[in-house]
Amino acid sequence: MRKFIVLILISSFFLVQCTGNRGGSQAKSESTGTADIAFNEYEYDFGKITEGEKVSHQFVFENKGPGDLVLKSVSTTCGCTASKYTSKPVKPGETGSIEVLFDASDRNGMQTKTITVNSNAKVPVVLLRITAEVMQQ
Questions:
Q1: pTM of the prediction?
Q2: Cβ–Cβ contacts within 10 Å for residue 26, how many?
Q3: Potential cystine with 85: which of 26, 33, 98, 116 (Cβ 3.0-4.6 Å)?
Q4: Taking CA 40 as the corner, what is the angle to CA 45 and CA 15, rounded to the nearest 5 degrees?
Q5: Distance of CA 119 to the CA centre of its chain
Q6: Are 85 and 56 in contact (CB under 8 A)?
C-alpha cells in the first residue's frame, strides 16, 4: 500500500507539472513562493485495539517551500474517522499538524482509513493512512 501512496504522490506531482509549465509559468510559480508540504510519516498503524476504543495520532508536516502553506481541507473516508488540523498559514520552515481520531465502535477486524489533505502546495493533494486491528471485547 505504501507503493500506492508513493505512486499517487508522484502522479500528482507530474500532473501539476504538466498543467502548470506552459509559456514560462515555471519561473512565475517559483517567484510567487509555492509552498511544499512534507510529512514525517504518511502512514500510522495503531496495532491491536479493542472495539469501542477511541484512538488518535498526530501527523506532523513541514513547509519546505518558500511560500506560506495553507491547508484547504482534510477529509476522511468514513464517519468513524475525524480530523483536526492547523488552520492558519504555515510559514516556510515551520511545522503544523493533523490530528486523526479513529472511533472503533461497531468495528471488527482489520481497518484501513485514508485521509486526504488538500493544500496550496506544489503537490496539492496528499494521502495519509491509518490502520488498526479491532478486537472484539
A1: 0.75
A2: 12
A3: 98
A4: 100
A5: 9
A6: no
